[in-house]
Amino acid sequence: MGKKNKMKCMYCGRTFFEGQGVTIVIGGETFRFHSKKCALEFFRRLMERIPPESALPAAKSLARELEEAIKKKEELSAKKF
Fold first, then answer.
1. Which domain holds residue 25?
2. What does the DSSP assignment read for 30-78?
3. Is 41 within a domain?
4. Cα separations (Å) of 72 from 20, 34, 60, 75?
5. Cα 38 to chain centroid, rounded
6. Burial 40-53 (b: 16+ CB within 10 A, else e)
7. Total domain count, the chain
8. Is 58 within the bounds of a domain?
9. pLDDT for the residue numbered 77
10. pTM: predicted TM-score of the whole model, two decimal places
11. Are residues 30 and 18 in contact, defined by beta-carbon separation less than 8 angstroms?
12. What are phi and psi of 33, to 5 degrees?
């Protein structure tokens, strides 16, 4: 069994082994978090710093995509008589 690399959560500083936690890559930059809670807190703070005129169109577009996916899933799972 190979030696596992230790990683460090960039939000709280806790160490964890490679393959655990949450890893997110944005524009070639890697961000590692030991838990989804730390990743969520990072994104909350990140979104506070991004100007609304930049983030809002992307958020609305993603919301529409997710709504459409849910609608299609509901249509497929609906009983047909």
1. 6-76
2. EEEESSHHHHHHHHHHHHHHS-HHHHHHHHHHHHHHHHHHHHHHHHHHS
3. yes
4. 33, 34, 18, 5
5. 11
6. eebeeeeeeeeeee
7. 1
8. yes
9. 86
10. 0.76
11. no
12. -135, 145
For residue 54, give the amino acid letter.
Answer: S
Return the pLDDT at 10. 96
Domain assignment present for 81 = no
Asked if 32 and 43 count as a contact pair (C-beta separation under 8 A), the reply is no
Q: What is the pLDDT of residue 2?
A: 56
Give the pair of three-digit tokens for residue 69: 């996916």
Contact 22, 33 (CB under 8 A): yes
- Torsion (CA) 28, 30, 35, 40 in degrees, nearest 10: -50
Tokens of 31: 């961000």
Structure tokens at 19: 């393959």
The verdict on residue 54 lying in a domain is yes
DSSP state of 51: -
Contacts with 42 (C-beta within 8 Å, 6 or more apart), sequence order: 10, 11, 31, 33
Question: Which stretches of the chain score pLDDT less than 50?
Answer: none
